[in-house]
Design brief:
Layout: H1 3-13, H2 16-20, H3 26-53, H4 62-77, E1 81-90, E2 94-101, E3 109-115, H5 119-122, H6 126-130, H7 146-154, H8 157-180, E4 188-192, E5 195-199, H9 218-237, E6 250-253, E7 256-259, H10 274-291, H11 298-308, H12 327-339
Antiparallel strand pairs: 1-2, 2-3, 3-5, 4-5, 6-7
Helix pairs in contact: 1-3, 3-4, 7-8, 9-10, 10-11
Bound molecules: adenosine-5'-diphosphate and magnesium ion.
Amino acid sequence: MSKNQLLEFYDELDDSVLEETPASQKHLFQKRESKKQVADAKLFVRAQEISREFQFTYKAARFEEAWLLDSLVEIAEHKWISDVLRKVKGGKEASVYLCTSGVAVDAPLLAAKIYRPRMLRNLKNDAQYREGREDLDENGNVIVDDGALHAMKKRTAFGEEVRHQSWIAYEFTTLEILHAAGADVPKPYAMEKNAILMGYVGDQSNPAPILNAINLDHDEARPLFERVVRNIDLMLKHDRIHGDLSAYNILYWNGDITLIDFPQVVIPSSNPSSWNIFLRDVTRICQYFSAQGVTCDARALAADLWTSHGHKIVKEVHPEYLDAEKAEDRRVWKEVMSRK
Ligand SMILES: Nc1ncnc2c1ncn2[C@@H]1O[C@H](COP(=O)(O)OP(=O)(O)O)[C@@H](O)[C@H]1O
Ligand SMILES: [Mg+2]
């Protein structure tokens, strides 16, 4: 089964599409339906073949199981994992599973994050994050192939697939960079088609809770806040802004924190909206820690960190950050001017 067919199939997992189809598009829908059935059948055949070799402890529902097997087969074949124990968290954009490691890995437990293609639909403002971010292929290399770049621009099914892959690759390569730099992030192990494998935070029976669910002791709050700030600083040092940082994307375990969830990572040196995105990240962190009794002035802190890395504070797109030679930059600038 081709990747395209699979993507279509995954899309169909979202039942709401069914209900939303207007009568005028019925024939289109029927066409999709029959395509879906073919894709369905192929995926299930493939899942059956895979399951002859891999039997996971976690028993998923039929659809989910086929999806899970298809997403993890290569990771299992490479002996990165030996079993899937359970689902840690299911979401509309990604689900995270607890796995036991295979012989190729030195940690006992791993987390597999598997993405669904509809993730892209929920990222309404994705252009804001992608600005200044070259797209990456499934090996984490910058895409230079004209065909792929053109397809992405035109938003063809193939282009969407490439774009989807690029988000995943950004999550993985960011984990690689930050982990090597000593940041508090899970260790990344492997990236496949639509899954990444990383260190698991928690124990066999309990995954680490998100920081937002925790009330910190007074003595604990300040050092942890400083720890988060150290991570933000380290990210800037490596030309990265989390882009969706908050107490929801920080795990808390045994008094330590781990930052997670990086597909939307922003490259500050080449993204004209980066100051706004950065300020929002810092503000959300300060919101949580203020409620935990830590005094912090988000704006002053953000400005300090930002300028200490040589960045200028620009509230909106500043002409200095735009390249008159680039059509995209001219478009952004026009848009900003028309809002004034
Ligand atoms: N490495 C990990 N170890 C343990 N739990 C994790 C890990 N990564 C993610 N999770 C759990 O899965 C949830 C979703 O992961 P996240 O990367 O934030 O994806 P998203 O928010 O896009 O669904 C997290 O809130 C956390 O509960
Ligand atoms: Mg998250």
